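note to self: dont lose this again. the chain is below, predicted strucutre after it. 222 aa total, dont forget to put it in the shared folder this time
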Amino acid sequence: MVLPKSLQPAPADGVPFAADKAYQQLRDAILDGDIAPNRRLVEEELAASLEVSRTPVREALLRLAQEGLVARVRGWVVRDHSPEEALHIVVARAAVESAAARLAAERITDADLEQLTRIADAIDRPGSTAKELNRLNRQFHGLITAACGNPLLVQFAQRTNISHWSLSATWLMSAKDAAEVNAEHRQMIEALTQRDGSAVETLVRAHISRTQAILQTVISAA
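---
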């Protein structure tokens, strides 16, 4: 099995640290679509690619299984999501991330707001691929959620991430889509800057409902 180039060797700073790095790299590769749904994940091959033992790889896979990104089906496999399953995930994401955004308005730092602006600027740059836009979008929302200060909400939000492949099967973000999405991002930044929790909560929920509406259309047409 040829593994994606995004899987680089994990630092050899002990099993817990190596497991964290393996988890993050595998998670990013799955969410970005570098490792497609239904792909078999062999512990020995992953360990060789990351240059770690099988123990941190196994720990990383167990964490990913808890998030619903991989499953054990006669070995490890990247989970696929039907449009119906994706819809459930997106509905949950809207509830969790909007609640987190309301809390974030009270706690977000100036440094966080500057980073959100830099991400929004990067999304506006021409020439980005759908995969790159997907990653920037994930970083944007992840930063807001992390700023909420509630570890449980952050954990729940991680469970509502879904593979780029699962969404790109129904919708590929065009340049026009990206511009509209990012205009909403900038409205969120403004609401957070004004410490307006109610406004940013409403904005985030409406923003994620865009994907929800697309999935509902796909399901209705099936």
